[in-house]
Design goal:
166 residues, mainly alpha, 0% strand, globular
């Protein structure tokens, strides 16, 4: 069993930054650790279905984003509780590093998006091509481009609007 765990850990290592970004985009700060565990577990369960002929990154993105979307569907109660906690944390940390505050405002704005929109923008921020995003979500490249344009505009407005004291 230790060999399987080592193999999985080695396979997972290059995907950890993507998992952390996904958890940060889909969960409030208090829930990010829980979501990270869920994403890792989903990849552990899905790993046997991975075909070496496929691209590991695309496989990991698909599994992680589907797991995040599923996790998010059950989070309505936590979202209501998390908005209050998140606002308090942002106000408390207002005097910290401006770059970190801006990054947190960006993730707070991303968390306000619908789950599929969240997945699209996160994949885009990770540098995934429109073709790959389209394949992951069953969309056309044109549709991905149009959605991302609208999503970027919305995120921009949300980030600008939250700078006046959330």
């Amino acid at each position: 069993m230790a060999r399987a765990e080592d193999d999985f850990a080695n396979w997972l290592a290059p995907h950890l930054p993507m998992l952390h970004r996904t958890a940060r985009a889909f969960a409030a700060p208090a829930d990010q650790h829980d979501l990270m565990q869920e994403l890792t577990l989903a990849l552990w369960k899905a790993r046997p279905r991975f075909d070496e002929a496929n691209v590991a990154g695309a496989f990991a993105y698909r599994v992680a984003h589907n797991a995040a979307l599923t996790w998010r569907r059950g989070e309505t109660r936590r979202r209501l509780r998390g908005v209050t906690i998140e606002a308090e944390l942002l106000m408390r940390d207002a005097g910290t590093d401006p770059r970190e505050a801006l990054l947190e405002r960006l993730y707070a704005a991303i968390r306000q998006l619908e789950p599929v929109e969240r997945s699209l923008i996160l994949l885009s921020l990770d540098g995934v091509s429109y073709a790959e995003i389209a394949g992951l979500h069953g969309l056309t490249e044109t549709n991905v481009g149009a959605r991302l344009t609208r999503i970027r505009q919305r995120v921009s407005k949300l980030v600008e609007g939250s700078g006046d004291g959330v």
